[in-house]
């Protein structure tokens, strides 16, 4: 009822605020997108809700972006523009630099809106809606947002520095700032300042108040004394200016009226906040008092002021543009305005014409429920890659081409060599020239983090190609998705199918026809991707000196261009030297490539053949594309979609690789394990086979259900295996519960290292139950733990190894020994080394490699909080902790707070098994003391190992597998020792050893 009342009131407010507006302002309407994008608010809300899950500050950050946008030439999204040669980004204005944030979330919103309503909704309107939704989702009012703004084509850093209110402003300066932009200096000022009822501010913006207010050498006298002491503790003089404090000390993440109560209690964080109440005789003080007593009055005035601010000088009608990417103006603004979604649908329909049923399963909406932000995630990785490698866009689209031409778009080009895979990377057209694999790896890692085991590498490559074009100034299109990844590669077919830079037109045409593309429009349009990127001299030098063995240059080469190329690529010179494919705009996706062909400046023979082959039907197409960029873009999109539909694997075909470079270790995951129990009593099995036979889908399901519902389970299972093996060897003793009236079992679950932190027991129970159903009395709980550990690593992107099996289960547990033997998170390097040598592991490579298991999983605050506040009883934090991480952790784990709050062990890829853990140590970002000791202990022999593993993931993976096998062999029970428990939580009632799992010792799994 209350929300309805606010909505009705908001509609009335809109009418009131818009009354008397300028003609441009009057074009704004809450119903502007009712026919063109009716769900825009809902789309933005869903992205925002997802963002809130990982970043409680995001609401306050987005409303601040909207404020800082509107105060500089009106609400035109100028604040979102990045710097270019012609744009001086407002992001680097003093009030924004290193404090404005949330741009990635706006990118996510834009991407989601573009998918639903391409080229319709402006970034300015997205920012306005995001501000309203941020308030509403944080407990504040909701209102009908007038819409119809368009985006500016420029930014103004100087005006941002001039117009934006500062945290150090006096009341007079604040009033002037508001009047200058057209807002009133009382109600608007106080109401909009009330947005500081949620969010954070950095110490740098208020520390002057704590020590040297107005150069007096004393604190601000308007600051409450207790609050002053709290802030001084948080922000010591000369300390880290980036440390964050809550604006509202009472309800820091809720939009309410407590901000005004804080001002009355002299607890306003910023000078500009407290000035509203503490400036003698201020006409704002009474408004603060009113809003502090009456939240409804605050909410009503806040809505009115937000709508008024949102109407500051909007661009409407034909002014400005609808940006396709909120961070930059459109490459050619004429294509950036509204585009009919029916035209995009027509392109898709043309591309799908004649598709096979398999191809028809592809859909633009394939990940709409399972990974809705996949395109945005990939774009984010790509944007970062562009910063250091301008060639990356061209390299990624080439990978997509070279993938699709070999057995269809199945990511086979990404597979590395193995004993069974002949990698396409070493085919002649790819060897020493295909590149960008590391960026695809990064995209995969980022996507897996958000949507584990959902998005194929083939689809990632497809999206990356489209985004590479769009981010380079070319067209954007709706990708058809739903491909799955191949389990093999075909180097021979790559050599046979891929077009060559030395091909004649006839051979090019044959290559395109052979894979199912047409030999005119598809050929010319897709060749147009050579409008950006580079080529090595070896791919065209024969044209310069000995074309077709004539001893002369290619006669179709422009003479001046020939001389330039000969200088760059002298005969007998370095064949790897690079030159631009497009001599005019080498890093921009445009139609200049076709002008180059007409001017006989095509770099490769295969390029120039399109225009210089006498009588070719491709010449007219080159001329059309040369004169009409829109025609090229449209045809390119159609051909890209058609190429992307070449023989995709869909449905149950192929797999979703966890690592794009290799097939999954358990690629036959839907098989069963019938033969397991029919062979012999030697345990020649692995979890890979436990998951791979017709009778055991129950067991498979138990693991995969756990994996899908609990991303932490893999790290938890490997920890159980570690903590088992360090106490009397790998005998499943950690799994035993206490039993009433049985003093022989003192459960290790209650040792200090395990109590309230060891987890995953229910998953081990489920595995055991499934195995007992299929193979009763055969597989020990100790072996289940060993196999589960290996598979946990492999399924999280790490190595696979052959697990030696045949362990038997212990009949007792030893809590005292667990307390004595298990390494703790508070240990020095010397103590860690002692724990490893005591159990029979080496204290350098084993120690560092096995510690690398902290590359995934979580840890509770209780295990590292002493590093944050009172390291070794010093009263200070651990000096080896990175200052930024320290501030983040102190916020997450406040002194005296909840010790069971979780945080990621690996900041970079918390759920992926990789070598980022070691890079974290190098950056002083190790979470636990025991982690950081490996790198920060002066003169330690572990430091070179950390450095090696950080730079060489393969070396880490190999050492980790060796150390895991060594640990798995600690003090084993085999033969007739121990038993095969029927329930992992307790010893068998009659202590019968059931069937012997081996004749003695371990055997390798099949």
UniProtKB/TrEMBL annotation:
Q: Which residues bind substrate?
A: 165
Q: Show which residues constitute the signal peptide.
A: 1-26
Q: Where is this site: Transition state stabilizer?
A: 64
Q: Which cofactor does it need?
A: Ca(2+); heme b
Residue ranges annotated for the Plant heme peroxidase family profile domain, each copy included: 27-330, 361-664, 705-988
Query: InterPro entries of this UniProt entry?
Result: Haem_peroxidase, Haem_peroxidase_sf, Peroxidase_pln, Peroxidases_AS, Peroxidases_heam-ligand_BS, Secretory_peroxidase
Free-text cofactor note: Binds 2 calcium ions per subunit. Binds 1 heme b (iron(II)-protoporphyrin IX) group per subunit.
According to the UniProt entry, its GO molecular function terms are: heme binding; lactoperoxidase activity; metal ion binding
The answer, when asked if Heme is one of the entry's keywords, is yes
Residues that hold Ca(2+) 2 according to the record? 197, 248, 251, 256
Active site (record annotation)? 68 (proton acceptor)
Residues that, per the record, bind heme b? 196
Which cysteine-cysteine pairs are annotated as disulfide bonds in the entry? 37-117, 70-75, 123-326, 203-235
Per UniProt, which keywords does this protein have?
Answer: Calcium, Disulfide bond, Glycoprotein, Heme, Hydrogen peroxide, Iron, Metal-binding, Oxidoreductase, Peroxidase, Signal
Q: Which family does it belong to?
A: Belongs to the peroxidase family. Ascorbate peroxidase subfamily.
- Free-text function comment from the UniProt entry: Removal of H(2)O(2), oxidation of toxic reductants, biosynthesis and degradation of lignin, suberization, auxin catabolism, response to environmental stresses such as wounding, pathogen attack and oxidative stress. These functions might be dependent on each isozyme/isoform in each plant tissue.
Question: What name is this protein filed under?
Answer: peroxidase
